[in-house]
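#struct-help
A.M.: can someone run this one for me? Single chain, 294 residues.
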Amino acid sequence: MTKTEALNILVTEANRGELIFSTNVATTLKIQEALDDPHCSVDTASKLVLNEPLLSARVVAIANSAVYSRMGNDVANVRGAISRLGFRTLRSIVASLAIRQLAGSSKDPAIRTMINKLWEHSAQVAALAQVLARRVTKLDPDTAMFAGIVHEVGGFYMLSRAEEYPCLLEKDDLTSKPAPGDLPPFVDTIIDRESAEAIIGRAVLKNLQLPQPVVEAVEALWFGLRAMPPESLGDTLLLANELAKTPSPLDTRTDTESNRYTSEIDFVVGNGTLLNILEESELELKSLTAALAV
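D.P.: on it. C-alpha cells below:
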C-alpha cells in the first residue's frame, strides 16, 4: 500500500464519521464537557483535573510560566493554578491534553519521535500565537493559544494510525499515482497530504466540539493567505506556525527552505518591529512553550 492509498482510506473514514479515538481522549473530553457547564465551580474543576496527573502537572506549570505569573508568586496546587488561569485557559489546557492523547502511545520509536516533534511544534505555535495576539493583533490571547494547540489535529490523528498504516511515515508519494483502474472503489481522485490533513482535521475538530472562531482559524491555516501585518485570528495562527523554530515533521518543506523564509518575516508594530517584540518576549515564549510541552 502507498501513502496516498492510506490517506484515501483515512479520508473516507473521516467523511463517514468513523474516527477511532482512544479511551483516554474520551475521558478528557468528559472533563472538557464538565468545564463548559456554567455552574462548574473552581472546587469541582480542581477535582476533575486532579484525576488526571498529567493534566494537573500541566495546569500548575502553565500557571507558573512567565506569561501568567507576572503578578504573583508561584502556585503549588491545582486549585490555586485554576484560580490564576481562569476557566478559558483551563479549557485550552484540557484541549491540549486531548490533542496529545489523539496520537496514543505507540511502541514504534519512529512514530514516537514524530509525535514528540509534532507536539514540540504545536507547543511553540501555541506560545507564539498567545504572544502575537497579546502584543501584535490585540486579539484574545487565550483563544489564540487554544488555536495553536489544536492546529495539528489532523497530523496527530494520522500518526495515531501509523502503526496500522506504516506508509504514512514515508515521504509523499504523489508523483507516483496509480492508474485510475487501480483506485479503491470508494474514491474518485487521489487526495494529497495537505487536503487529506484538512479533511481529517475538520472531522476531528467536529468531534472535539471546538469554538467556531478556533475552527475557522485552523481552516485558515490549511487554506488561507496570511495578511501582513496580521489582523485576524487566522492570520495570527499562520504567522505563529511560520515562526515556530521546530517545524512540523509532516511539513514537506526542507529545514533550509523553512528557515530562509521565516528569517525574512518582520514588520512595524507601533514604535517597534515584530522581531523586537519576539526578542522582548523570549523569556515568556520559552517559559510557556516548556509548560505546554510538559
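A.M.: thanks! The CA atoms of residues 15 and 272 lie 46 Å apart.
D.P.: also worth noting: The longest helix spans residues 109-137.
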